[in-house]
Amino acid sequence: MLTIHADSRGHALAVEGERVAAAGPLEELAAAYPHARVRTWPGILTSGFVNPHGNELLEETYHPDPREADTLGTEPLTGDALTALALDDARWGASARRGVQRMLAHGTVAAACEPLRNRAVQDAVRRTGLVLTGRQGRPGGVPSLDPLASGLEPVYPPARTPGSAARFAVFDVRDEAELAERGTATCVATVLAGRLVFRRR
Fold first, then answer.
1. Coil, helix or strand for 153?
2. Pair 90, 120: CB distance under 8 Å
3. 73 Cα distance to chain centroid
4. Between vectors from CA 197 to CA 152 and to CA 154, what angle results, nearest 5°?
5. Pairwise CA distance, residues 45 & 53, whole Å
6. CA distance 199 to 189
7. Is the pTM of this model over 0.85?
């Protein structure tokens, strides 16, 4: 089924299956695809972000389960706090799944990383559909679920053009300047391979 995703500025993408069928003003796409389902989102529709710290956030960080909040808190754990947990494969896999979900909630559609070494993390990430892009060495900056808070220049996926993979995010802000000011916690929706994988309730 073809779906048109549009933002408050009238920018829109027509998505069919895993691909972008067309991009342009909402009025034009609605006329071209009169039987499409239309989703109108608050804010701005963007290509989303590539988080540069894939290894650090997925293999070197533990993302606590909400049921562990009383003992571990809710913030990601690294360093000595991570070492003290002595995680087994099951907990590493569960952490990676939660980590990916939290990345998606910040408009991340891809993560840059060297090949993942932990098999449980590999399997968990593959099932989420998050795109992994290659990198060489450590990127510097501060690993953060918010790619705009890393201290590095933001990295965006390739432009959304007809035939390209349908990967994008929507942020509840007026424009790119407000997004830079408020950060990616303003994300209201993230789409991977045409699937709505995150929606803020």
1. coil
2. yes
3. 23
4. 10
5. 23
6. 4
7. yes
Nearest to 83 by CA among 114, 61, 100, 56: 61
| Token pair belonging to 16 | 């069919």
For the chain, what are the domain ranges? 2-47+159-199, 49-149
What pLDDT digit, counting tens, does each position of 103-150 carry?
A: 999 999 999 999 999 999 999 999 999 999 999 889 999 999 999 999
Q: What amino acid is encoded at 70 in this protein?
A: D
Q: Are 107 and 149 in contact (CB under 8 A)?
A: no
Whether residue 159 has pLDDT greater than 80? no
Count Cα neighbours of 110 within 13 Å in the Cβ-side half-sphere: 21
* Cβ contact 40:11 at 8 Å: no
CA 65 – CA 85 distance, rounded (Å): 13
State mean pLDDT over 28-34: 97
- Determine the topology of domain 2-47+159-199 in CATH: Urease, subunit C; domain 1 (2.30.40)
What confidence tens digit (pLDDT) does each residue in 46-63 have? Answer: 999 999 999 999 999 999
136 vs 32, residue with greater confidence: 32
Contacts of 163 by beta carbon, 8 Å cutoff, 6+ apart: 19, 20
50, 112 in Cβ contact below 8 A? Answer: yes
